[in-house]
Amino acid sequence: MRNNILHPGAGELNYEIRSVVEFANSLQRLGIEITWENIGDPLAKGEKLPSWIKQYVSEEALQEDLSYAYSPTKGLESARQYLSKTRSLETGNNLSKENILFFNGLGDAISKVYTWLHPNSRVMGPSPAYPTHSSIEGAHARSHHLTYDLDPYNNWLPDMEDVRNKVKYTPNITGLLIINPDNPTGMVYPLETLKEFVAIAKEYNLFLLADEIYCNLAYYPEEFVSLAALAYDIPLMIMRGLSKELPWPGSRCGWVEFYNTDKDHNYKEYAKSIEEAKMNEVCSTTLPQAVLPKILSDSRYKNHLKDRTEKYIKRSEVAFNTFKNSQYFEVVRPKGAFYLSVTFKEVFINNPPHIEPANKQAAELLEKELSKDLEMNLDKKFCLELLASTGICTVPLSSGFNSHVQGFRMTLLEEDDEKFEKTLKTINSI
Ligand SMILES: Cc1ncc(COP(=O)(O)O)c(C=O)c1O
Question: What is the pTM of this model?
Answer without folding.
Answer: 0.96
